[in-house]
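Q: My labmate handed me this sequence with no annotations at all. I'd like to see what the chain might look like in three dimensions before we decide whether it's worth expressing. Could you predict it?
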Amino acid sequence: MTTTIKVSDSLRDRLKIQAAGEGRTLGAHLERLADAEDRRRRLAAVKDAVAHTSAADSASYADETAEWEQLDLPAAQ
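A: Here is what I predict for the chain of 77 residues:
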C-alpha cells in the first residue's frame, strides 16, 4: 500500500537527490530516515535513564560488573 504526502518541491528534490546518491528509492530513503530517528530517540532515552541513575544503583552496577569480569568462563565454540 502506498500513500501521498504533501511536501514542498524543494524538500522533495532534496530527498530524491539524497536517495539517488545512496542508490535507494525515495521510499527506502524515507524509511531509513525514520529508522534513524527511532534509534536517536531510543539512545536519548537510555542517556536520560543513565543520567538519572542514583549513585547507589551506579555503585551496585559497577560492583556486579566487576564480579562478572572475574569469572573464568569457558570459551564459546
